[in-house]
Amino acid sequence: MMFLPSAVGRDSSRHKADQSSSLLRVLKEQWIRAKYERQEFMANGKPISMPGNREGILWKRGRDNAQFLRRRFVLLAREGLLKYYTKEESKGPKAVISIKDLNATFQTEKIGHPHGLQITYRKEGHIRNLFVYHERGKEIVDWFNALRAARLQYLKVAFPELPEAELVPFITRNYLKQGFMEKTGPKQREPFKKRWFALDPQERRLLYYKNPLDAFEQGQVFLGSREQGYEVCEDLPKGVRGNRWKAGLTVVTPERRFIFTCPSEKEQREWLESLRDVLSRPLSPLYLLTASAESGYGSR
Fold first, then answer.
1. Which element (helix H / strand E) includes 222?
2. What would the pLDDT profile of 184-201 be if each residue is shown by its tens digit?
3. pLDDT tens-digit series, residues 36-57
4. First and final CA of the chain: distance in angstroms?
5. 10 Å Cβ neighbour count for 149?
6. Which of 269, 239, 265, 234 shows the shortest CA–CA distance to 249?
7. Strand order in the sheet with 68-76
8. Exposed (0-12), middle (13-18) or buried (19+): which is 21, by Cβ within 10 Å?
9. Cβ within 8 Å of residue 79, ≥6 positions away
10. pTM for the complete prediction?
């Protein structure tokens, strides 16, 4: 089964178009080669499904440094697990990741490689990021599709009452918007600090990091619905001023107000549009089943 991702979210329209075009070219090229050159989808003239398990080497960015090192990854689709090993001959894995919590998205610009992939999962109440790449486009595309196939298999087992069409949007997802903003603390008197933000529309969370390639987020803001008292306001509260940036916005939740400033009015408009988009979305039945228990943690 072959899944094609939507264009990776970018901060400028030109860069969005460039990355989307590049990604689609890679996917189309590898799909054509798989079907017609390698005939991976045919056996005796009949279509066949690709095997669920996968094993291979990916270059992974270190958690505490910027070095990318060879790591052996093993996907066990039936067991619903992804493992990686620090050495090819290692007996025990460095990490065991449940497919239940996994997401994968192409992040070529952020990682700095044309075949870069960001894998995320939950770990001890936080979002853990793995940044990996492979020299060959086919290899990273095959990994992406294998992870999506494993995710779909998990969702079908976990939610047998739901049709596949309702499960597909929850297989993997892209961030709706990413970029730098500055934020202040809960008292609104703390200094504004520059942070990297990523808006996850499916999980309804605004994650923020000190740097784009951090392994864990520094905090997150859960975004419920307007009916629950969540809203986004243009500009800053009276008496609050940003540090370097003046174009502000305020995210209102039942617990507190989150104050942000953007590097330009254009960025402010894009963030306002994206945040309001998430707030306007209804809480889907599948979301309520999978994420409602998580809605209270992580905001700080």
1. strand 219-222
2. 998 888 889 999 999 999
3. 444 444 444 443 344 579 999 9
4. 41
5. 21
6. 234
7. 95-98, 81-85, 68-76, 54-61, 126-133, 116-123, 103-106
8. exposed
9. none
10. 0.79
